């Protein structure tokens, strides 16, 4: 059972900090929420801070149970009262906040795994033990490396450097390293792009085959001892290009890089009188990563959707008045 624990050394967030919250209640004054990274401390988003667009119904902006990214605009340290803003957060900031949250959840899971060696603990004892792990491991590493997650990633290759100043016994250290390796070792992901390649000159099919071959070879030459690109006929003249990589971002970049694969195919086929159209830009086709991409896209589209909704409402009201 997971223990509710703040992820960071500061007991409260600071003004202008980005936080991830879960909506708990909506009333006429605004939205109540809990700060997921700060031990579920209560926070409040005043109605004017919900959206840059005119608000007709709060339920059109958010709902109970929804996870949102917000900015801290006021902190009452004495009463632990926190005012937040949703409208001041753009898509890039939302992604950054969710990335930090994801890192913090990974660190929490790794630390909680250490508690398994202590057997069954009641919730109070477990909370105290987890706090001790944060105080002795996670927070000191965050002060040195920026985030404990980044320190754990470095520990995959150089554990002695990471833990040289951390005061933990050897048994705890080994359990910690085992869980770091299990949770943070890079997992392979599949990258796919789809292209349409045609050639109606005399070179025909030979030119298409030659262009695809040169594209694959260009990727292989840049990836010595690394992943290779496979070409599959989806439905001629549409072909899929696939590769399995450890570094997701590099795979996405490589498949769409100006000197690799797609543009090599394009240059080659156009030189022989053919054409290439990209039908699907490189994407990750593993389910988990597709969900992440959808979340990012939703964040980017939030403001536009809210504004469009309000504009539609305005138009409806104007029509009603005319009638």
Our Rg estimate from Cα atoms comes to 26 Å
The CATH topology of the largest domain, please?
Alpha-Beta Plaits
Number of strands: 9
Low-confidence stretches: 287-297
**Largest sheet geometry:** 5 strands, antiparallel
The side-by-side strand order for the widest beta sheet comes to 3-2-1-4-5
Distance between the termini: 60 Å
Which percent range fits the helix content? 40-55%
The number of helical runs is 9
By CATH reckoning, the class of the largest domain would read Alpha Beta
| Global structural class | alpha+beta
Query: Helix and strand string, N-terminal first?
Result: EEEEEHHHHHEHEEHHEH
Task: Tell me which CATH architecture of the largest domain applies here.
Answer: 2-Layer Sandwich
The average pLDDT value, as a whole number, equals 84
Quickly count the domains: 3
Shape: flat
Annotated CATH homologous superfamily of the largest domain: EIF_2_alpha
Percent of residues in beta strands: 15-25%
Describe this structure in words.
With 323 residues, the protein is an alpha+beta fold. The protein has 3 domains: 71 residues, Nucleic acid-binding proteins (OB fold (Dihydrolipoamide Acetyltransferase, E2P), Beta Barrel), CATH 2.40.50.140; 91 residues, Orthogonal Bundle (DNA polymerase, domain 1), CATH 1.10.150.190; 99 residues, EIF_2_alpha (Alpha-Beta Plaits, 2-Layer Sandwich), CATH 3.30.70. The strands form 2 sheets. The protein has a 5-stranded antiparallel sheet with strand order 3-2-1-4-5, covered by helices on one side. Strands 7-8-6-9 form a 4-stranded antiparallel sheet. Helix 1 crosses helix 9 and helix 6 packs antiparallel against helix 8. The radius of gyration is 26 Å and the shape is flat. The chain starts with 17 loop residues before the first strand and ends with a helix.
